Structures are given as C-alpha cells and as structure tokens.
Amino acid sequence: VQLKSVQDVVCASAPDLQRLTGLSNSDVQQLITAAAAACRRHPPITAQQLQHGVSGVRLGCPVLDRLLRGGLPVGGITELAGESGTGKTQVGLQLSLSVQYPAEHGGLGAGALYVCTEDSFPIKRLHQLIGEQVCLRSDVPADLVNSLRFSDHVYIEHAADLDSLQVCLTRRARLLLARGLVRLIVVDSVAALFRAEFQADDWLERNRRLLTFSSMLHHLSQEFSTPVLCINQVTDVFSQSHNSMGPSSSTVSPALGLAWANQVMVRLMMRRLQGMVIRGEQSSALRRLEVVFAPHLARDGQDTAVWTEGLRGVESWTSNRK
C-alpha cells in the first residue's frame, strides 16, 4: 500500500505508517498532526472561545440570552427539538429578525435563509413580530429598529424532498452567503424529509444522506462564520416501570438518533409545562427552554412564554401563574 494523499495518512494507523515510511514514532505523530491540519479547512472553535463570547446571534430577550451566554454560536449546528406547539418556530422567526441588527446589538448585520420542509412559512406571524420589534428590543434605539427593513432580508425556501433540500443548500444558500446577504440558516424541520423518504429498514441509506446533509451545513457554517439552527421533531421513548406488570412511561427524545446527535454542537429542547402565565391582557401557556448539551454551556433551563412580540424568559418574581 502506498501513501498518495494526506487522506491516506489520516486513515492509516500509526503502526502502519511507521512500517510504510520507516519513520520513528515521534516523526509519525508529527506526520499525522500535519496531515490532519491540511485536511481541515478551518480551525475549530474551542469551548473557551465560545464561553468568552465568539460573536453569535442573540434572541433579544436578556433572560434567554443569559441562559445561552449570548445566543446562537457561529461555526456549528444548533438543534432545537420539541413537540408540536412548544414554540420552536417562534425561536427560528425571532432569530431571523435578530440577526439583522448590527453586532453591537446582538446581530450580524445580515439577513436569514429560512428553509421550510413541512409546513408553509408563517408569514403573518413574521409580520406581527416585525411590528413588535420596538417592544421586544427596548435596548435598541427606536429609530434604528424602524430603519431596518426586516421583511426584505428573510429569504424563504421550501424543500419538498431531500434532493431539493440539497440543491437549496449547495446553490441558493452558498450564493446568499457569498454575497453577504445572509448570516443565519434555519431549517424547519430537519426530521420531516428523512422520516418521509425512508422506511425503518433503510436506516443505512438514511444515515448516509443524513451525514451528507450535516456535512453541507458544517461547511457553510465554518466557511461563512454562520450560525445554523435546525429545528427537530421528537420521538417517544418508552421505559418499563419498576413493576414489570405495570404500565410503560413515555418520554420524548429528539428524532434521527445518534447519527444526527453526533453532528450537533448545541442541543436545546422546548417543552410545555402545566399552567398559564398572564401579563396584562395577554396570556400564554408556560414553556421551558432547556440546554441538553453544549461545549460552553451548563445543563440548565429557563421558563418561557410566547407573547405578541415573541418568546421571552419568565422569571418567577414577574409571573402570575394559574
């Protein structure tokens, strides 16, 4: 076997490289390190960099931005999973507007690409959020908020199958990113197409396509320093009670299994809680946004509610619950 490329070096074991090249063990380790560096197009983002504020996109709510240490990080995939009606799409819409603010106000000064794979885009809710930006972003001067043409910079794509999703990411997304028109990609949702196109016994091909999809997102995110939000469905996980004759209890877990989980840098989940929270004439079902894992975040959570102006954290001392 001959070594013809850096990929050959990376794929070979240290003993095989030592046998093939005649190099010492220390020289082989240096060779592996150099080959790995040559294969990597962009330096990785470390947990320390994330913890000390690699610029990202804030949600616009101080309570939730504290939970996420500043918002959605660049250079990786953030997954937001949860059952239907928990507020996942609200987060995607809110970030699509927040990204348009300048960096000093928690944005990246560009638009968002919003890819819908199951439902039609909630255009009425988007316009409602735009109309309430002055209320949500009271930290930003009103004249700046009013000067931003939010609806002109949310680029909407519908992908009915995996092939059209691939075309969208390889052509449309790359073009928008290269021109500096967008700095955020939202896929809503990632599980819909994979669940629709593959049966249970097609898991090998499904995983192959899933890895191809995640690889495209990683390349775009790294090359253009762009946050990626993938909204995901959940699947029921049943566990038998301690009494083997008793009923099984059910919890939920993000869809697509370990093959997808290993591609995600940050995993967030949303779930509905019992009770309502009231603010003036508005009321909202209580929800909870939880950090499941992230290299720079502790496992934590925050109660939230959806108001006319968007998703906000609910602090116990300001909420009235029923």
UniProtKB/TrEMBL annotation:
Ribosomal protein in keyword set: no
Domain RecA family profile: start-end pairs: 53-234
Broad class of the protein's primary localization: nucleus
GO molecular function, one term: ATP binding
Compartments it resides in: Nucleus
One Pfam family matching this protein: HHH_XRCC3_RpoA
GO (cellular component) term, any one: replication fork
Keywords, comma-separated and alphabetical: ATP-binding, DNA damage, DNA recombination, DNA repair, DNA-binding, Nucleotide-binding, Nucleus
UniProt record, GO biological process: double-strand break repair via synthesis-dependent strand annealing; resolution of mitotic recombination intermediates; t-circle formation; telomere maintenance via recombination
Cited InterPro entries: DNA_recomb/repair_RecA-like, HHH_XRCC3_RAD51B, P-loop_NTPase, Rad51_C, RecA_ATP-bd, XRCC3-like_C
Similarity comment: family membership: Belongs to the RecA family. RAD51 subfamily.
Record protein name field: RecA family profile 1 domain-containing protein
Organism: Oreochromis aureus (Israeli tilapia)
